[in-house]
Amino acid sequence: MVHLKASLRPALLAVLFSAALGPAAAATIYGSVSENQQPAANRPIELLCPGQKAVPATTDARGSYRFTVGTVGGCTVRVGTAEAPVILSVNPAQYNFELRSVNGRLVLVQR
Predict the structure, then answer these.
(1) Which domain holds residue 39?
(2) How far is CA 24 from each of CA 4, 20, 49, 89, rounded to the nearest angstrom?
(3) What is the CATH number of the domain that holds 97?
(4) pLDDT tens for each residue of the chain, 111 residues long
(5) Total number of domains in the chain
(6) What is the pTM of this model?
(7) Alpha-carbon distance 32 to 64, whole Å?
């Protein structure tokens, strides 16, 4: 039987417990945002998932974005005041959006 110092036991238990749970699931979504048939370049974009802090990013010159987070499930992509639902899974998913003005309100529509 192996005897460990009392000070090492909590650390060993933490390592064994985290290994038993397995690695955290990572999810990636990517795509582009356009507005008026042009790339929505250099626009702030956020990923909002329940119980998590908002993840900010900025579209590039082509309107492209990418988020990789340690959660899966239903989330929301927000550009300005416009939002659209997305589903994150362990398989990367592409979501392309169009910013449109509807009745004076900005909306995010999946293309």
Answers:
(1) 24-110
(2) 29, 11, 16, 12
(3) 2.60.40.10
(4) 555 455 545 544 443 433 333 456 799 999 999 999 999 999 999 999 999 999 999 999 999 999 999 999 999 999 999 999 999 999 999 999 999 999 999 999 999
(5) 1
(6) 0.76
(7) 4
